[in-house]
Amino acid sequence: MSSSDTLPAPRQVGAEWTHQDGQRTTLTITTCKSCASRWFPPRDTCSTCASAAVENISSETQGTVYASSVVQIAPRGFQAPYVLAYIDISGVRLLAHCPTADHALAPGTPVELTVGPIAHTSEGAVTSYVVTPVGDTPHTPTGEQR
């Protein structure tokens, strides 16, 4: 295979905030020393009190679903349908893809952070932090329309 025949390397969205240590995946979260607010993605100044007295910490590896939805019409590079979920983890709420789910996840469903594919473009695969349901917890569709 010539160098022009090699596949492009995957791009990772949020790579600077995502950390993998073997099987563990964590995210960088900012916490304010002045007012105790927490933020993701991390930032240099607290968005609540404008203090610069902030520090970055690592998130837990597991969180819970706050809300979830099945995306039926996707932007270029994404293959619909796919599941997005708001996740509560380590005091922040963030949006993540759920590539192993085929239906909306019920609120309170425990999930684990991992890294996985979220899209395929002409430039190659796109990966990011994603979540997967923990264990064999039953997941019931919520608000899904077909």
Polypeptide structure, described:
This protein has 146 residues and is an all-beta fold. The protein is built from no helices and ten strands. The strands form two sheets. The protein has a six-stranded mixed beta sheet with strand order 1-10-9-6-7-8, with no helix packed on it. Strands 2, 3, 4 and 5 form a four-stranded antiparallel beta sheet that branches. A hairpin with a 5-residue loop joins strand 3 and strand 4. The protein starts with 10 loop residues before the first strand and ends in a 13-residue tail after the last strand. The C terminus is likely disordered.
List its traits.
146 residues, mainly beta, disordered C terminus
Q: Give the topology string: H per helix, E per strand.
A: EEEEEEEEEE
* Shape verdict: globular
Strand order of the largest sheet: 1-10-9-6-7-8
Mean pLDDT over the residues: 87
The number of helices is 0
Oligomer: single chain
For the sheet with most strands, the description reads: 6 strands, mixed
Strand content: over 45%
Rg calc: 17 Å
Fraction of helical residues: under 10%
Low-confidence stretches: 136-146
First-residue to last-residue Cα separation:
44 Å
State the total count of DSSP E strands: 10
Secondary-structure-based class equals: mainly beta
